[in-house]
Structure formats: structure tokens, C-alpha cells
Design goal:
The complex is a heterodimer of chains A (113) and B (114).
Chain A lengths: L3 E4 L2 E5 L4 E7 L4 E9 L5 E8 L4 E4 L2 E6 L4 E6 L8 E9 L6 E3 L3 E6 L1
Chain B lengths: L3 E4 L2 E4 L4 E8 L5 E7 L6 E7 L2 E5 L6 E7 L2 E7 L7 E8 L9 E2 L3 E5 L1
Parallel strand pairs in B: 2-11
Antiparallel strand pairs in B: 1-3, 3-8, 4-5, 4-9, 5-6, 7-8, 9-10, 9-11
The chains are: A mainly beta (113), B mainly beta (114).
């Protein structure tokens, strides 16, 4: 059974700092990995999708990497801003899980002005 | 347009009420999903519709009844709910392609059962 772990559970940084969020998964037989952002009481916003054949994806100040063989992904946020404060979730779609996503517990990020 | 809409935003219902949650997407996606999310937890999958047919039911109690009237709409009918069913209910959609497609989520319906 696929398990997804996100470290750290919470992170507080000063504005302007570059930071890395980590996601690990136990079964490397995946189709893709998706990073989401969730603001309190809101829905999930898709940030980046990395296919299993890709190594990284970039969108603005965000860069996500994938090392499928070691079961790891990182989300790099450059020059963090208070507006980046949210919970970040990673989710994997396994090759044998049909349409199911397996989510990590999330990292709650606070960027202080 | 990568938008999934959900109505209502908030819903308060008694345990004897019948209500429905609605979800709509116009991205041409053929897979639609219902998730339940409790505070400080990740979403939990409830149902998946693929090409308007129910393909996954994650052993959800029968007081939750999904319906997919057409490829753009997804409903969740609620009846005789319990207070522990209070949660954020999220709808999502995707292309339902060969496994690599991206899921897009709606803003959710905050449900409170009294």
C-alpha cells in the first residue's frame, strides 16, 4: 500500500527566504506526483504536476523535482512571501491505484513579514 | 479555464434533512470525484465517476448518494447524516487519461450537521 510522508509538518520562515518542502513515497510505481496548495477552509489549488518520466517542473518561483527511484520529491519556493502562507500537500497517483491519489499529511507553511 | 465550481459554499442541516451538493466543470473532463476533508487532514476519496458511470465507491455509507447527470455535473445527495459527517466536501475533475492527468479541485462546501 502506498504511503506518502511530508516533512516537516510545519515550517515558519521570514519573508524572502528560499525554502524546501519534502515529500516521500513508498511505492515507486507511480504515474505522476502533484503538489497542491490549500488556504484555510478553501479548496486545493494545483501548483505543479510531474509525470513519472520527468525530473522537474517549474512555475514562477516554484520548482518541483522528482526522484522516482528513491521515492522522493521536493518543492522549492524561492524568495518566499507572506502570501505563500498555506498548507502544501503532495499526492501521488500509483500505477495500480486507478484514479486514486494518495495524499501526504501536508506541510503548514507560515511566512512572516 | 481550469475551474470547478461548487454550490452551496456553506450548508447547515439537521440529521433528518435531505440536501444536495452540486459540482460543475466545463473543461471537458470525463472523470469527476467527491472527497471529504476533516480539519488538518488530507482529503479522503469518496466516489469517482468515469464517463458518467460510478467507477469507485470507497465504502461510503448509503446516507451519501452520488449522481452524475451528465459529463459536466456531479451531485452528492445527503440524507440522515450524522454530526461526524460535518466536514469540507470537495469536488474534483480530471481528463481520466492514461494515468498522467492532473486533478483540479473546486472550492468546497463546508457542511455542518446539527
Amino acid at each position: 500500500k502506498q504511503e506518502v510522508t511530508q516533512i516537516p509538518a510545519a515550517l515558519s520562515v521570514p519573508e524572502g527566504e528560499n525554502l524546501v518542502l519534502n515529500c516521500s513515497f513508498t511505492d515507486s510505481a507511480i504515474y505522476n506526483l502533484q503538489w497542491f496548495r490549500q488556504d484555510p477552509g478553501k479548496g486545493l489549488t494545483s501548483l505543479l504536476l510531474i509525470q513519472s518520466s520527468q525530473r522537474e517542473q517549474t512555475s514562477g518561483r516554484l520548482n518541483a523535482s522528482l526522484d522516482k527511484s528513491s521515492g522522493r520529491s521536493t518543492l522549492y519556493i524561492a524568495a518566499s512571501q507572506p502570501g505563500d502562507s498555506a498548507t502544501y500537500l503532495c499526492a501521488v497517483k500509483g500505477e495500480t491505484s486507478g484514479s486514486r491519489l494518495t495524499f501526504g499529511e501536508g506541510t503548514q507553511l507560515t511566512v512572516n513579514p | 479555464d481550469t475551474e470547478v465550481t461548487q454550490t452551496p459554499k456553506h450548508l447547515v442541516m439537521g440529521m433528518t434533512n435531505k440536501k444536495s451538493l452540486k459540482c460543475e466543470q466545463h473543461m471537458g473532463h470525463r472523470a469527476m470525484y467527491w472527497y471529504k476533508q476533516k480539519a488538518k487532514k488530507p482529503p479522503e476519496l469518496m466516489f469517482v465517476y468515469s464517463y458518467e458511470k460510478l467507477s469507485i465507491n470507497e465504502s461510503v455509507p448509503s446516507r451519501f448518494s452520488p449522481e452524475c447527470p451528465n459529463s459536466s455535473l456531479l451531485n452528492l445527495h445527503l440524507h440522515a447524516l450524522q454530526p461526524e459527517d460535518s466536514a469540507l466536501y470537495l469536488c474534483a475533475s480530471s481528463q481520466d487519461g492514461p494515468g498522467w492527468d492532473e486533478q483540479y479541485f473546486g472550492p468546497g462546501t463546508r457542511l455542518t450537521v446539527t
